[in-house]
Amino acid sequence: MAAINDDDAEFDPTPEPNEEFEAELERQVAQVPPELFEALKPLLMLGSVANYMLMGHDEDPVPMALTELLGYDLDAVQRLANVKDTPALARVMALHTLELFDFIQIGIQVYESPLGPPLQAYLGRHNVSDEGTESLRTYLLSQGEALLENIGHYLSANDADLQEELRMRRLQTESIFSRLADTLRPYYPPGSSPEDERAAALDAADEAEDAEEAAVQVSFTHAQRATLALALRLPHLLAGLGETPFARALADVPRFRKKALTRLADRLLAAEDDVPFALTWSEMLRLYQAAHVCALSSVAAVSAVGSLEDFLMSGRGDASDAPEVTAEDARHTREAMMAMMTGFVEVVEANHPDDEDVAAARAEIGRLAELLEE
Question: H helices then E strands: how many in the chain?
């Protein structure tokens, strides 16, 4: 049996919108109890979160199947999510009754599907306890079913055939979730996925460490500052290429988070020549490890085209009108960078020969270097 659509005449008995229709609609909206929205607000909120977590990946099998079967899409979700007061809710209930029916039943299905745990975890990260998220789920299931029953009575007007169509609509929707359960994946608003929030917490921890009292002061020349700033950008560049085990492993080095690397690189470039440059302990360790990686990159195959010297020779990533890099230019660049990087590494190790943090940082890069031998 075909699924029911808002376009089906049986379930949309209202005439085409016109002045008379609008006037009647406004009259009915005015008669709706003003507390209706507040009463349904928790249900609409939970339904919105559930629907977005599903329909946000609108190219995935379940959302596509729902769109094909029900004509239900992100526009429908947005329409319900935009309801902020009783008049707006009353209009949606009058003009998009079947969408509201689908909105509620899909929300229930999301909570009962493999998306349920990540959905409850998401709510839990927003100041809702485990007990609270479970009670929200119970609320949605009970109140949602009650609302579905009321909408069903309204849409079918006690017509047995129409009631059967609504029943089949729910069964077809449940079948989609059941058949395609292994394709479900949660959609999160930008910046709010578990990975995003973990990264934000780590970035905040880095920033707090980098704001501590300076541990050392080093005098750098302009060329040294520029080269060290380049070394700080290199780990993220290589990790982004991800063409070798070494490059891929760089992304997992705790001190190589992009924001921390960029913050220190920008500070180096903005510093004045021949003025002692203050480094916190965390910044010194970060620069120490970046210098190690840059030195390794000068002599080992860290990308698909080889070493940093090979990378420069390949012209990869350069503009088409960029000047040609000769073999001699690349060799001189590599030798200069190698000298600066090894020099900085040696200064750190000479001044902190027995420090556990320095030893651990050196060992971490040593484990990465072993990947270059595979």
Answer: 17, 2
CB 189 within 8 A of CB 37: no
Of 18, 5, 9, 12, residue with least CA distance to 95: 12
Backbone angles phi, psi at 104, to 5 degrees: -70, -45
pLDDT, tens only, 199-215:
999 999 999 999 999 99
| Dihedral angle sign, alpha carbons of residues 60, 65, 67, 72 | negative
Contact (Cβ atoms closer than 8 angstroms) between residue 151 and residue 100: yes
CA distances (Å), origin 300, targets 64, 101, 338: 47, 62, 12
**Contacts made by residues 116-125, CB under 8 angstroms, sequence distance 24+:** 118/53, 118/186, 118/194, 119/49, 119/50, 119/53, 119/186, 121/194, 122/49, 122/53, 122/186, 122/188, 122/192, 123/49, 125/194, 125/197
- Contact criterion met (CB below 8 Å) for 296 and 307: no
Contacts of 286 (CB under 8 A, 6+ apart): 232, 255, 256, 260, 261, 264
Whole-angstrom distance, CA of residue 206 vs CA of residue 56: 32
Q: How distant, in Å, are the alpha carbons of 80, 113, 137, 280, 371 from that of 175? A: 24, 12, 21, 58, 48
Rounded-to-integer distance, Cα 18 and Cα 99, Å:
22
Element (H, E) at 279: strand 277-279
**Angle formed at CA 44 by CA 42 and CA 45, multiple of 5 degrees:** 65
Which residues are bridge partners to 278 per DSSP?
217
For residue range 316-345, list pLDDT tens digits in order: 444 444 445 455 655 665 677 778 888 889
pTM of the model: 0.70
Task: Give rounded-to-5 percent helix, strand, coil for the chain.
Answer: 70, 0, 25
H or E segment to which residue 290 belongs:
helix 281-299
